[in-house]
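tool_call predict_complex ligand=nicotinamide-adenine-dinucleotide
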Amino acid sequence: MPEQVIRQRSRGFICTNAHPAGCAAVVDRQIKSVTESSLNNVSGPKRALIIGSSTGYGLASRIALAWGFQAKTLGVYFEREPSGKRTASAGHYNTATLQARAAENGLWAYGINGDAFSDDVKAQAADVIRRELGQVDIVIYSLASPKRTDPRSGETYSSVLKTLGEPYTNRSIDLSTGVVGEASIESATEEEAANTVKVMGGEDWNWWIEKLLAEDLLAPGARTLAYSYIGPELTWPMYRGGTIGAAKKDLEATAGTLSELLKTSVGGDAWVAVNKAVVTQASSAIPVLPLYISLLFKVMKAKGTHEDCIEQMRRLFLNHLADGKAPRTDADRLIRLDDLELSEDVQQQVTELWPQVTTDNLQDVSDYAGFRLSFSQLFGFDVEGIDYDQPVESEVMIVNPE
Ligand code: NAD
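tool_result ok
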C-alpha cells in the first residue's frame, strides 16, 4: 500500500480513523514517562495478561508493567486492522508500536486480537501462556465494551447508559458543535439494567480467572485487578447510581469472590482499582462526562495534580503492586486512585464552576481545549512533532515474537 496523508475524520464522540505516526508518538511518550519515573526498574510481577490492552487504562497498565517491571506481557484487544486506504483503529497502531518497542528493548510482548468474551480467545490466550510463559503472575481486566455475546448461550447483550429510577437531565457539551446544552438520560427497563450488568459486570472476568485456574496457568500468589469509576455526586444519578454503576458494583463484588477463590487456590488475591476520570474512547461516549472532565482538568492542572492514564497506572503499580507492597484499600476493599479527583477542594471548585459554564465562556472557564486535544490524541492526531502533511504508511502490522 502506498503511503498516504491522513487527516482526522470525526463524528461527534467518534473518530473514524487514526494516524499511525501520531499513535506511535503517544505510546512512546507513555513509555518514556515510565522509564523516567521511579517505577523504572522497581521489581514486580514478571508475567502479565492484560485484557483490553490496546487503549486507555489497559494500554497504560501494559506499558507500566513492561517498562516498569520488565514484565512479559500478553495483551488481548479487539481492534480493526488496516485495509487498503482505510486506516487501522488507534488501538491497533498503539499495539504495533508497543510490541515493536518491546522487541527493541528486549521485552517479550505478544498480542491477541479478538473478542475477549469468546471461548476461542480465552483458549488462544491460555495456549500462549502455557507455551510461552508457563503461568502468569498478574491479570489485568480493563475491558470497556458496548456489547457482549455470551459464548455459553450464544445470546448478545447490549449495555446502556441509563438511570435506575427517574430520568436525569444535566449540563453537557455537544462534542460535534462545542455547544453547552443539556443532555437527558432516560430510565432503564429492568431488562436493560440486567443486560448492562451482563456486559460490563464481573461475569466475564470471573470466567477468565476460572479458566486460567482450571488450566493451572496462575502462578503461586497470582493477583488480578479490574477497573472501576465512582466519580462525583453530580454524575451519580446517571453513572454510579445508574445502569453502568450497577455493572461496576457487580464487578466490585466479583473481586470479593475472586479474592476468596485465589486465596484458597494459589495464595493470590483480587481487587478493583477505582481510577480517575480521563479522556478515553469509553468516557467520551458518556453524556455530561466531557463537560465534567473539562472542568476537572482545569482545576487539577491549576493545582498541579492532573494525571492521565499513565500517571495513574504508574501510581497503581508503584504503590500497590510492586514487590513488597500490599494494596491499600478503603473499607470496601477498593484501591482508590481517584483520591486526588475526589478531594474536597477539587470537587468544590468544579461544583462552583459547573453552573457558570456556557458555550461562550467554555474555553475560559473549563479546559475544553485540553479535553479536545486529549480526544484527538487518542487517535494519533494533534500530536506535537508529527507533520500531518507528510504521507505515512498506514499498513503497519502488529508483530508477535517468534
Ligand atoms: P478504552 O475504550 O480506552 O479501552 C477498552 C479496551 O477494551 C480496548 O483495549 C479495547 O480493544 C478492549 N475491548 C473492548 N471490547 C473488547 C472485546 N470484546 N474483546 C477484547 N477487547 C475488547 O476504555 P477505558 O476508558 O480505558 O476503560 C477501561 C476500564 O477502565 C473500564 O473498566 C472503565 O470503566 C475503567 N475506567 C475508565 C475511566 C475513564 O475515565 N475512562 C475511569 C475509571 C475507570
